[in-house]
Amino acid sequence: MLHRVRAPVGGVxxxxxxxxxxxRAAIAVTSVTQRGSLPQYxxxxxxxxxxxxxxxxxxxxxxxxPVHLWDTPLQLVVGLVTAAAALLAVGARRRLTAxxxxxxxxxxxxxxxVLYGAPDLxxxxxxxxxxxxxxxxxxxxxxxxxxSVRPLRRSRWVRRSVGVAxxxxxxxxxxxxxxxxxxxxxxxxxxxxxxxxxxxxxxxNVTLVDIRAWDTMGELSVLVATATGVASLVFQRSRTGxxxxxxxxxxxxxxxxxxxxxxxxxPPCTPAAGRSSSRWSPG
Length: 283
Hints:
Layout: H1 11-33, H2 38-60, H3 73-90, H4 95-115, H5 119-140, H6 153-179, H7 190-198, H8 203-211, H9 213-240
Helix pairs in contact: 2-6, 3-4, 4-5, 5-9, 7-8
């Protein structure tokens, strides 16, 4: 004879209990991770970048062939100027100064492309960097002149450490990627194949138009999108007129009456001329 066995927890109660647990776990995780701080979000992403690929780099070793730093002294000069501009941009207090220094890093990258024999990439980089600077100038006109909030001293060192670690990891990834090639480069056959297959002796033109035509179309699409964005900002400003610049937010505490915070005491309010300072009372 079969007997019905009663479960210790019903299906409905078990489902509700599990749902409540998931809700509490979601609230706990959200309260820790979603703090509404953009530096914290970026720091988390960059730390994951440092730990995961950086740990893989340290665990794999050795890192391929020896490093060849530069071919000509001009490459060293351009690299030093680009690095100096990046460091100065980090410590800039004015938005326009920081934007111009970031633009110097972009132009330095384009010069590196020129020195390494990639004029198509250099042209794209020059055009995009110029358009980006124009967009930044139009946007910065609506923002305060200076960065209003500066991080604390301890926070600055943390951010600098994270930035240096990210730079080291990305440099290591570049070295590993460059030294991981086992087969000869296909670019050795470009001069011969340009004549045989594309009937052209200008290897650069054949490469841009025939061999890597899709890449060229993608670069042109980027330029068209950038130019469209700049034009829309310019036309919008011409229709609506210039907007006044917002004043920078004051930093520090307001002085209290009596000078308790070390500031000058605020004089008490005086009644306006022609008005009585006594309060009105009924009766």
